Amino acid sequence: MEKNRRAHLRLCLERLKSLVPLGPDANRHTTLSLLMKAKEHIKRLEESDRKAQHTLEQLQRERRHLRRRLEQLGVERTRMDSTGSAHSSDKSDSDQGELQHRLKCGHLCLLSNIFFHPPTFV
């Protein structure tokens, strides 16, 4: 019985050794040092996960904000097109064309990447 327990424990420690980054002295670790390294590794993983979760939440808020802004721009553009007053008095036709081109090409591509390809964290 005791022999089986020790064999099982040895097997578990070997599996743990393969999961925890040990550094250059991988062959010379005691059970205690292996467990301490595992504890440190878990804490680093938890911190990394916490930071990734925070970044994900920030990106989701930004995506919601950009979606609302995109909807506003669409509504404004529709309103401008329907009223026929698409140009403000202080902007020339070329300025308006450049602005619309920038919105179409740059910002919409960026927004579509954010909407359709949200970041993933491992």
TrEMBL record:
It comes from the Eukaryota. It is found in: Nucleus. Residues 45-98 are annotated as: Disordered. Pfam families: HLH. InterPro entries: bHLH_dom (IPR011598), HLH_DNA-bd_sf (IPR036638). SUPFAM superfamilies: HLH, helix-loop-helix DNA-binding domain (SSF47459). Keywords: DNA-binding, Nucleus, Transcription, Transcription regulation. Residues 45-54, 69-80, 88-98 have a biased composition (Basic and acidic residues). It comes from Xenoophorus captivus. This is Max dimerization protein 1. Its main location: nucleus. Residues 1-45 form the BHLH domain.
